[in-house]
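I'm curious: can you give me some protein's one-letter sequence along with its backbone structure tokens because I've never seen that pairing?
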Amino acid sequence: MAMNNMGIFAEFIGRKVNKVRWKPNDLMASTMFVTGSWDNEEDNVLELWGLTSENENSTKDFPPKLLDSVQQNGNVTQIKFLDNKFVAISTDNGAVKVYRIIDENEDSNIHLEEVMACEALHSFGKGQRCSCKDLAVCNYTLATIGDDCKLNVISLNTKQIHQVLEGISSSPLTCICFLTDTEVLCCNSLSQMKLWDLRVAKSSITDNINNFTQTQVPITCVAQHPSQKHFIFTGSEEGDIGVWDMRTNSLLTTMSSGDASSLTEIAFHPLEPDHLFTCSFGGRLLQWSSKKSYMCRIDPGDMEYSNFWVNTDKVKTRLSINDVIQPIYMPINSLDIQKQQLICGADNEAVYFQRNLKI
């Protein structure tokens, strides 16, 4: 169904959507995406969807067609693609699985094929499983964190656990990302970030980064700048975004939209990193952008200065924040951007799609 004249479409899929991700496609706009459900008792699933078209010559669009559905024992807590074939998921029963998408070039029946499963990766011992809170990928390496305060590093190539770091946080872990292919950044509910170097022993923590607020507001999500990897963006339980320079472990600035609800995900536009997108527990999907009047004054030869987000004296006055869709007043849990198209999933059991983002 179309929501309005902005080219935004919604499809109700019958389950609360906790995660949604486009299938990567380097050359053109993707026509497939996956969703992971939650809060559906014993009936949570990973589902593969394909955009549809009226005929072979028309553009593929909403409504999507369900291509495959795989039952999961628990809520899906994260979905990450390793490439355009392999997708990894985590669940709140401590499991991590990797699936391969079998497309029309291999089988007339497009489907998901399980290639790796770690059923009890996170647990409190004695068979008491706990949630795998988040999952990060770099090349074909997976890093996971859980309620057991463990960091696991897994290789898809060997399908083995390469490293286990225990007791890495004194408070619940919330999110994780790779800073480099050997460094992992872990965030917790005390607004702390810890950077771990996977090449050294557990005791050799790289950095223990101070809180970015005095009130210790939990960090709920994290994103890395697409081109300048040392800049990290964190979302908080109070709706703020923190901008960090990891070379100096310093907080450059914080930004607020005025919406105090917890941020659930942050994502950059992959081709236009001066545009940032967030979704929130309060049901808002926001686009954070630099105003054009500022961008035209930038010296294109100065790459550091041309990163709009690090100019602390300008970012708050030149920042434009707009709703991508009308607020739905139920949590929007996940979003993803590929080329110029955006997709998001929410607790109202709907997936929202916009083909042409206004950049």
